[in-house]
From TrEMBL:
Top-level lineage group: Eukaryota
Family to which this protein belongs: Belongs to the CbxX/CfxQ family.
Organism this protein belongs to: Ceratopteris richardii
A GO molecular function held by the record: ATP binding
Protein name: AAA+ ATPase domain-containing protein
Stored InterPro entries: AAA+_ATPase (IPR003593), ATPase_AAA_core (IPR003959), CbxX/CfxQ (IPR000641), CbxX/CfxQ_RuBisCO_ESX (IPR050773), P-loop_NTPase (IPR027417)
Keyword Nucleotide-binding: yes
CDD domains named among the record's database cross-references: AAA
Keywords: ATP-binding, Chloroplast, Nucleotide-binding, Plastid
Amino acid sequence: MDALEAELEQVIGLHDLKLQLRKWAKGMLLDERRKALGLKVAGRRPPHMAFLGNPGTGKTMIARILGKLLHMVGVLPTDKVVEVQRTDLVGEFVGHTGPRTRKKIEEADGGILFIDEAYRLMPLQKSDDKDYGLEALEEIMSVMDTGKIVVIFAGYEEPMKRVITCNEGFSRRVTKFFHFDNFTTQELGEMALLKMRNEDMESVMFGFKLHKGCTADSIAKLLDSETTQKQRETLNGGLVWPMLINARENLDLRLRLDCCDAEELITITMEDLRIGLKLLST
């Protein structure tokens, strides 16, 4: 549980989903305790899931945490998460889709197969016999009852609802649905602070820091004034990293080459962040 909590501390928002992950982890650990005491209890099989929400709301990140969790408690033999989209599964010609899909299923064996934009596997027009997305979907559903793999279908909420309601096999096998809300500007501000604290030596932001005036509240206000609602709904968490990268570049631009002040050389200010956001809309 401590390991899970350490992972969840890196996630902003998503409170309902975090609660569900804690429930699963505790239940799985209690099952281990029951077995250790000689109690005969049914094995717990992790459910297949649908993650519904806009891009940048943390779906892929949560899938990776889930992979670690299920492996830590012994439900899955590995913690691997294989991320795919339609183009990874569907071929252009007859006979191509099955082998491509089976290859990805084999890669994910013992772990999680994460299908982004899963609604693209089901064409809008059922009469379109040139589309092989349904073949890929049927191939995936054929292994979902084996217990050897967990499948997560992810995508925009409305198109995913169409897939869920139109395919009986899908709705029978996928039993857990999680809604990923758009991040608030306050949450995006907290995310920026978290990213700056946790960057490792491989990151282009390693060694830099935010000015003490760059609080979550002040960054939230900046996002409110310098971005549109459409930008925030389209990018969500995807706003934060480009903003920080652009801000670092602006820091370099405004400093003199003969600057010898160590603090000034590594400190990103609110003005740097403001210009960083401006560059996103130009």
